[in-house]
What does this fold into?
Amino acid sequence: MENNIVTIEKMTYGIDSLAHLDGKVVFVPYGVPGDKVKIEVTEDKPDYIRAKIVEIIEPSKHRRKSPCPNFPQCGGCHWQEMHPETQRNEKENVLNFIIKGLNPSHAYPMEPLPMRGYRNKMELKVAFPEDGSVILGNYSYNSHDVVPLKGCIVQCYENMLLYEKLLEFANKPENRETMENIHTITVRTLGEQQHCTFALKVPTSNEEALAPFKKFFDENESLSRLEVYAEVGNLLTQMRDKKPFFFMNRNWRVSPNSFFQNNIEGAEAILHTLISIYSAYQHKGKFLDLYCGCGTQTFLLESMFEEVYAVECNVSSFQDALAHQKTRTSSKINFICKKAEAIFNTPITKGVIAALHLNPPRTGISQRVTRGLSGIKPKIITYLSCNPMTFRRDAKALKQMGYKLDRVYSFDLFPGTYHMETLGVFLRS
Ligand SMILES: C[S@@+](CC[C@H](N)C(=O)[O-])C[C@H]1O[C@@H](n2cnc3c(N)ncnc32)[C@H](O)[C@@H]1O
It folds into this structure.
């Protein structure tokens, strides 16, 4: 197709930047606002065009050389060629655009967070190129090609140290068969707690097949826990005594299958905001925390309420929440291991509900939960979301139930990517 010249205007919620060509919107991956670029049209639809950059004619003042050597091959980050402040401004603009129709009384500037070394969780795919080596890394964007993570700037230092050890392990000829049976390797470092999980393609309880994992654990003192599992369940657990994860002045247990925010400083920023929001009100009645994970948010808010219910369907997170509760001298939270959908029209939702906190996965809340919410009338609802699109959909439903979106906070939890965390405060009109 023909080449054309456009100027990039802004970013969208995703990998694409946006420009116009002959009055039509053009979506261009990896553009930076202000760039003058030559593009090649890859898809011409009636109301939009998709194109790729073939030449940067005049780079924008917001463009930088990516500080990560794996960009753009690695699919983990999408916006590394933009200066940090521009990334945040663009995210803020994208969010304000998405939530415009919700008319929030106030949208605070996005809270900046460190740009590097913030990710505590690393998920590695395995590939076997023809040269006989083994690659561990991320899928590249929209493909199943595995790109090595070497030099990654967003993973925390401890994960990258273990990455080097894993690479060494993977490339030992004697471990070849073991590697060929690995689907994914997950590493998470929370303080001194470093967990490494190997997900196998085919289960094995064969001592010989599990021996390389035991050796890897023995040789890597930084690990507090190593697990090998397959679809049939856990095949091996190795543990070493290490200090618990200390966060917000408390010790927590976060097991490998439990949820914890990928960014510890981001999790802290969110918690401080939640505490300040809730402490501004006098609460009479119950507090409901749906999608509570290990209960980090519930535990830090519970003292402001008379009665507290926290709902989580993941057994591992639920058990970690109970384990933490046992370490508290007084905690009144009733943890319930159920789907949020199942709690409506039960004693949990009867009586006066003072406040409701929602923190669902990217898909947002289901229609069943939305219907259930219309039957309870908390004075205040906080909704924390990692997906502004589903946040908008659910916020519209809350508005129809008579809530006003009073404030929106946002946090740059995933610098280098287009992702962000949004916190909405809804008050009953
Ligand atoms: C984004 S995490 C939030 C966890 C917690 N609020 C935190 O910040 O640590 C979403 C949680 O919802 C849980 N979850 C997903 N679908 C659910 C459902 N239908 N009912 C209850 N919990 C669910 C997941 O297991 C996960 O722990």
